[in-house]
Sequence to fold (304 residues):
Amino acid sequence: MRRPTKQSNGEPCPPPHNPLDGLGELADRKISRKGLLKAAAAAAAAPVLVGTGVALAREAAAADTPAPLTPECTDGHVTGEQIEGPYFKPGSPLRTSLVTSGTPGTPLTLSGYVFGRNCLPISGALLDFWQADTNGNYDNSGYTFRGHQFSAANGAFTLTTIVPGLYPGRTRHIHVKVQAPNQPILTTQLYFPNEPRNATDTIYDPALLMTVRQVGNGREASFDFVLNVNGTGTPSPSPSNSNPGSPSPSPSNTGGGTTTWQVGASYKAGDVVTYNGVTYVCIQGHIAYAGWEPPNVPALWQRR
Fold:
């Protein structure tokens, strides 16, 4: 049947609806969310991973070209929450590498940034990772494939690990808790693209897919966390690695009494300190750095 060219009032008929209309705008929003956010940190310091796809800031840095300007966060996107699951353990070691030279599995380097909803990086954000080994098993007696770290001054983080194995009922995933200083904890999970079980895993969320590429015999992945707080960009020191496979070292106050919190001291869960006349109990082992005073990191200290 021939489509009429005029309406009953004599006006020309509007063009037929194209189902693809709006996809360009949607793609732009996705690039703004998953790509252009990276430019905020790339303008301040070199990124830690050269990726593909929408990793625009990393590609710009690799090509030695100017990074885009810091975008406006107009789409209201923040990283979604997911369940903690049954295998989380507090007190993980402070470290950025979860493997040794003999660890079996496909090597994986995960890197990215922690941003606030205002597109500014969050310095000193706590990131606590845990995952299964290459056989799909979690270490529930020790701290294998468990570790926490803090984001750098430009919000960057890097994790050296392996691709986690599969176990019944789940697709491949990495657990993480992310917390800006003195702010609520985001508990979520990260996923791998093109996994057959993504289609059957009832917890899987495509918004939490990492950007992953093959590099030699391993993989490189990237993901940027956007927390529902404002970033500040305030510099903070980055911790050094500790040995994988063991919890954080015991604190210097081995006598068990209350001591004054101090930079450089090692604390374990249960240690008691005072800071500005207030008493705090350590709830996760760590090494104290400037900027991580007890009132600033409730993931590490609980006020008594």
DSSP finds three helices and 15 strands in the chain. The two ends are 79 Å apart (CA to CA). Residues 17-74, 234-255 have pLDDT under 50 and may be disordered.
